[in-house]
Amino acid sequence: MTVTRGQVLRYRVHAQQLDRPTSTRRRPDDAAILDLGVQDTGPDGALWALALRGVPVRAHDWPPELALAWTVRGAPHAYRRADLPLVEQALRPYSEADAAKRILNAARPLAAAHIPALEALATVSRTMHDVVAQPLAKGELSTRMTAQMSEPYLRWCGPCGATHMYEMPFRLAALHAGLELEPDTSPPVVRRIPHWPAGHVGNLDRAVGDDGAVDLVRGVLHLLGPLTPKQVAVFLDSPVRDVTARWPADAVEVDVGGTRAGLLDADLAALEDPPGAPLVRLLGPYDLFLQGRDRELLVPDASHHKELWPTIGRPGAVLADGELVGTWRPRASGTTLRLELEEWVPWSAPTRAAVRVEHERLAQFRGLTPR
Question: Sign of the CA dihedral 208, 210, 214, 215?
């Protein structure tokens, strides 16, 4: 089956519930994107992403039903608190090669010391669990961990002018250690997760042929599909071989602009005839809609890629009727919030009016007045 770019984008809008109205009767953890984790980077982060999907939340008011942890790609993500043990199991590396890929530049000195990456992550997890007997700011935790770990785990950091652990093993080991992040702390504060199963600390074993109730490959295909195994692997920071080995048996192939990509069979009908209700949304810089690794499909004009996805200081994106049509940056001053907007194409009068409504919505979310 061949599908158009428009069908794919409208499918993702619907699958990610961006077309869902807000309801005060909805639970704070009622959002499909929490199955995959909601990245919490920037001032609006995870809570704004949930608000855009109809969840009644406000900035800096974290519901107890949600928890925050360093997970995919080492970034902070929000999850349902009740799901954390299952999420931890899902994030155990698929293989030794997967573990080595996830920890980036820490893999080489560990390999030189004949320490497998999986063993290293388990060791860091157990040590970190013991060190965090009470909440610790990241800097203090790093200092204490550096004192505990041997040379292959450590590096000289020029910007800090100090020796400390490699960053990715430090972050990725935290959830396996039974640790979460305290929301709205900067620098981040790490603390133990209440009632964490002792058997999960430093245990990176995987059941053969069973990726558990939280299956990340399936989650990516459902929320960001159709995608190729390589695109899913890039999203998860895993080897393509490991993703291919876990490719769902019920995935079907579709043709998207000449590329054969996979989607779960149960989602095929929604892809063929996705809802197309007009809507405008101010997507945060790290919103899941912008995280697909098929950027040429999301934004065909490559000249906009550096603007939307710079290495540092990403803007938000303006989504209008399934298309990304510009960028936005918040400019808060005192009790007011102004938006700096960039139009990639001339906006219609209805789009401009809808952007003003979303501006008011964002200001209310932050407890500010739009200007």
Answer: positive
